[in-house]
Amino acid sequence: MPFKTPYYTVIFTNRLKELDADQKKHYDILSDRMVELATKEDGYLGIDSVRDDTRAGITISYWSSLESIRKWKSNTEHTFARNKRDTFYQHYQVKIALVEREYEFSLS
Amino acid sequence: MPFKTPYYTVIFTNRLKELDADQKKHYDILSDRMVELATKEDGYLGIDSVRDDTRAGITISYWSSLESIRKWKSNTEHTFARNKRDTFYQHYQVKIALVEREYEFSLS
Questions:
Q1: Residue of A nearest to B50 (CA)
Q2: With an 8 Å Cβ cutoff, are A57 and B50 in contact?
């Protein structure tokens, strides 16, 4: 589903460390919680997320306003504090972008 | 490596069909060729690409100008024509976004 442009997107590129089963379970809980917090914000539009077998991941969330992103960031920082991030991620980058144009192709 | 803002990004979200070995080989060649064509454009900055075991993929390329994206799009359309896309993708979406801000965290 295409969103009405212009809108904002948060691009999160990352690679997880090699986590043991308990760490992975903890990570999955925190990760699900971040998505849940996003869906509660008025300006949340959607999310796409992929992780491959080398533990590289890209998560893209879509937002109608920067203000919604700010609120989400503030809420998630209590849940997924910086020191916890150090535990899970080998590296990550966050980019905030304005989507000006999009086009879609789908057979489904 | 963070890029100097503002810059552009092309966000390609997709899911491949279930391809047989020959189709997959053909797809990989075309896919590599698209990346190769990108690296030849002056405004190309970089690329991130992840595909999971459900065949869902996200590829994000980074560009210093819209003009470079237009040239790449024009060149790739000869290589990876619309009818070939229908062969490989269950669905895909392309978004062109302006990256206004980014921040980075890395242990490596």
A1: A52
A2: yes
ipTM, 2 decimals? 0.84
3-class DSSP assignment, residue B2: coil
Q: For residue B94, which residues of chain A lie inside 8 Å, CB to CB?
A: 102-104
Q: CA dist B4 to B1, B24, B102, B107, Å?
A: 10, 36, 9, 21
Tens of pLDDT, residue by residue over A56-90, are: 999 999 999 999 999 998 888 777 776 678 889 99
Residue of B nearest to A93 (CA): B104
- Residue of A9, A94, A98 lying closest to B103 (CB–CB): A94
Contact A89 B105 (CB under 8 A): yes
- Convert A76-99 to b/e letters by CB count within 10 Å (16 or more is b): beeebeeeeeeebbeebbbbbbbb
Please state the three-class secondary structure of B8-67 as a single string: EEEEEEEEECCCCHHHHHHHHHHHHHHHHHHHCCCCEEEEEEEECCCCEEEEEEEECCHH
> Which pLDDT tens digit goes with each residue over A15-66?
999 999 999 999 999 999 999 999 999 999 999 999 999 999 999 999 999 9
